[in-house]
Hints:
Helices cover 42% and strands 20% of the residues. With 95 residues, it is α+β, with helices and mostly antiparallel strands. It is elongated and about 50 Å long. The relative contact order is 0.12.
Amino acid sequence: MMATIRKREGKLQALVRRHGSRQFAKPFVSRKSAEQWARQMEVRLESGLPEPTTDIPFRTFADVIHRYETEVSRQKRGHATERYRLKVLAQFSLD
Length: 95
């Protein structure tokens, strides 16, 4: 794994790639801050911590509610009642 720092659109971009994983990129103004971020990302990926999410996994409030329902609410005892409440709440979200 090796970090690359390149100029892109007048700014510096740090790019970290790892075999078998997706790449991570972030824009920076200074080279020093780009190098620090790249080192932190390399350490994080090497240590086996979960991959950070740089993309927004949801676009609307209804998407957030759906993700909560599938990942958190299912683990609860009262998930059937909570699912109903979440469905009602999702209907009133401003998409």
